[in-house]
Design a protein that fits this description.
By secondary structure, the protein is of the alpha/beta class. The chain has one domain: 2-enoyl-CoA Hydratase, Chain A, domain 1, CATH 3.90.226.10. It has 10 helices and 9 strands. The strands form 2 sheets. The chain has a 6-stranded mixed sheet, sandwiched between helices. A 3-stranded mixed sheet has the order 5-7-8. Helix 4 packs across helix 5. The termini are far apart.
């Protein structure tokens, strides 16, 4: 079996996304480590394109999604990047992952915050290092979850815990996420690379036709409302970014202080 280093990305980064191949495994890397892999519209469009390519390429048997540096994904880029149309692009990435007729494995070794949370949960398997954590931080800047987070979390952990994450924006440790049923695998930090490599090797050499039908059935059973929920989230985000609360939340984020929301 190949070592974890086999899946180190050696391709050039395009719009913050790097890809490489190892046989039937396509490795997609969120590659903006200086921004903790925060996503903007070009990056989201690039991700959707890469998953679209994977769907059309019969030689791709499985996809790994990981983050470069010390985070999986810190959410949307709030530092003034190119985010026009990001709410729609974010939905398209999640749809591309859930519709892909091949297994997608997310490797989470650090924070999966904001959009990073539904991005990971859209994958079929999520293997997380014990030091990782998940957080829906949207309400801290006066926004709401997007990317289908409310559907994905509701399906995974139920309405009460999904509401707890969305409303309180608390950090959920990888251990708690595993206990709640949010992720499929919890591993120790020291063995993360090895166990991720083993899991990727297994799915990349598994019965692809069986996987395709399993994914289709699970999506029908648990994600039938994904598109309609995403539409509500997109409408809500478009309304919320026009509010004074969001402007205050974004300022407070940049200034590293607690926001003073007025409900306006």
């Amino acid at each position: 079996m190949p070592s974890a280093a086999t899946w180190d990305c050696d391709g050039p980064s395009v719009n913050g996304v790097s890809v490489s191949r190892d046989g039937g495994l396509l490795h997609v890397v969120l590659d903006r480590p200086d921004k903790l892999n925060a996503v903007d519209t070009p990056m989201l469009n690039e991700l959707a394109a890469r998953f679209g390519d994977a769907a059309a390429d019969d030689t791709v048997r499985a996809v790994a999604l990981t983050g470069a540096g010390r985070a999986f994904c810190s959410g949307g880029d709030l530092t003034g990047g190119d985010t026009d149309g990001a709410e729609i692009a974010a939905n398209e990435v999640v749809q591309a992952i859930t519709a892909l007729p091949k297994p997608v494995v997310a490797g989470v070794h650090g924070p999966a915050v904001g959009y990073g949370c539904p991005l990971a949960l859209a994958c079929d398997l999520v293997i997380a290092a014990r030091s990782a954590y998940f957080q829906l931080a949207f309400s801290r800047v006066g926004l709401m979850p997007d990317g289908g987070a409310t559907a994905l979390l509701g399906a995974a952990i139920g309405r009460p815990r999904a509401a707890r994450m969305a409303l309180t924006a608390e950090k959920v440790s990888a251990a708690a996420a595993f206990e709640w049923g949010m992720i499929s695998h919890l591993v120790e930090d020291a063995s993360y690379d090895t166990q991720l490599a083993e899991l990727l090797h297994a799915v990349a050499h598994g019965p692809t036709q069986s996987y395709r039908w399993i994914k289709k059935a699970l999506a029908a059973a648990t994600l039938s409302e994904l598109a309609s929920v995403q539409a509500i989230e997109a409408d809500g985000q478009l309304a919320l970014i026009r509010t004074n609360d969001f402007r205050e939340g974004a300022r407070a984020f940049r200034e590293r202080r607690r926001p003073d929301f007025k409900g306006l």
